[in-house]
Give the backbone structure.
Amino acid sequence: MLGSTQPTIHTGADHDMSKPKVFVTRAIPEAGLAMVREVAEAKVWSEQLPPPKSVIIEEVRKCEGLLSLLTDTIDTEVMEAGENLKVISNYAVGYNNIDVQAATERGIYVGNTPGVLTDTTADMAWALLMAAGRRIVEGDNYVRALKWKTWEPQLLLGTDVCEATLGIVGLGRIGQAVARRAQGFDMRILYYDMVRNEEIEKSLGVEFVQLDDLLRQSDFVSLHCPLTDETTHLIGAREFELMGPESYLINTSRGPVVDEAALYEALRDNKIRGAGLDVTEVEPIPDDSPLLKLDNLVICPHIASASFKTRNKMATMAAENLVAGLQGKPLPNCVNPDAVP
Ligand code: GLV
Ligand code: GLV
């Protein structure tokens, strides 16, 4: 919880009683905020840390629209308070922070930002895969620690990415974009998904296998599934055993898909060779997480969609969803179009 009870909020617009009120839970790029302000009286939470839930609840009481981030838990408690809420626009493709069913039951539309961050996120998965396989961060640390004395035959040996086997878990938009990158590296590409898509198999040259087979056969396993009850701890101790000591795990999806305690043990005991994470079970990762002591882990602070272009585009898409919802029009990107206001 934040210490201050007096939140820093900028209205940024003239008091205009005719405009609907909205709460924006963080300062998203101006491209989106400007669109929101044109049609709504916007309050923007401008702190670095997310607003406490009590603030969100207080604000939604007065609002017809909410623009939220994946760090905000938008559950029934928030929706009960937001009696006049018409739309919740999430500044993300993922929406596991929102109780969508509860929103649907209340006739509140929920929007997200799919598509625009597909390639940006696939780039990040690729960067983590390359960094883990070729020990980029360890190499950087080594040089800065002034340990580089000569060219050594066996210094920082890693794993070839080209011609290796890649296992993609979840062949949605992002999984497919990762497969396209893998084609350029002449990889054998396996995938597992709840639904098999033979058309995409042909066009991308990917092979469907059951999850256990994917884990056994892949050198690199990259996760691209949404977080659901079924995918929580999808990868744990048993799965690391199947992966084996020469394999790597890459996670740019959601932290809880991986059992992090099991990941720690697998990395510590060299049951797998390395991992690249952009997400963790608890975000931010706790200061005392043992993962932070491991050399065979590359970790980033959930920045897979963080390019200038993509974050601007996400802001305008989130604004478009919000504005449409306020005006009673269909959201350009709606995750619960069956909601009935
Ligand atoms: C980021 O993780 C997103 O879901 O957009
Ligand atoms: C996100 O764009 C996905 O993979 O569904």
Observations:
- The domain at 8-116+308-326 is CATH 3.40.50.720 (Rossmann fold).
- The pocket of glyoxylic acid (ligand 2) is lined by residues 93, 114, 118, 172-174, 224 (CB under 6 Å).
- Residues 1-5 have pLDDT under 50 and may be disordered.
- The chain has two domains: 8-116+308-326, 118-299.
